[in-house]
Fold this sequence. Notes:
phosphoprotein; alpha/beta; globular; 2 domains; DNA-binding; 5-stranded parallel sheet; Arc Repressor Mutant, subunit A; Rossmann fold; CheY-like_superfamily
Amino acid sequence: MTGRPVTVGIIEDHPVVVDGVTTWINADPLQRAVVVGSGADVDEVLAGPAGAADVLLLDLHLGETVVVDRVAELCTAGRRVVVYSAMDDPDTILAVLEAGASAFLSKHEAGGHCVDTIVAVATDRPYVTPSVAGALLSEAPHLSAQERTALLLWFQSMSKASVARRMGLSEATVRQYIDRARVKYAKLGRPAPTKTALLARAIEDGLIRADEIREYRSHAAE
């Protein structure tokens, strides 16, 4: 994303919502994102200029159709999806995160989260909105010190290979630590298949503090 704004495609059937989101994005003082297309139909938007957008902002209720099932399809195809919906009950939020959505934004949340979420998703960084955090409250698993360290470094935008170098471990071991944390959540009936979902659960459960998630600086840069 360096050197250019994040491109965004909006899939939404209410023009006033499209206008509102576009206004938030255009008002960002850092000009970090730009809307390149919008429409009320998933396939129509994908066939147009927004088909190659860095991030798709998807409403779940288009006309008379609820398109929750399209989330997994879009994510499997490699698209970064931010679900933006008034359907913000915990079951729906968890369902779209488990289907692969990079983030969930409730239409009842302040617009200040919108650009931050889009930019975070475009750069593969997790971003936890209040609606996601509220949906993920429940029993917490126990993480070992090594598992917690691996997760924390990974959440700080480090690749698994970079985490491995920083911890003096193999990349396979780091993957094992992250997968182990996911398995522990799954066993509690709280699956966290995406990076955002896993971070949200860890923060809400007090396993990781939000103020610990800082931008990664390499040893070489230091």
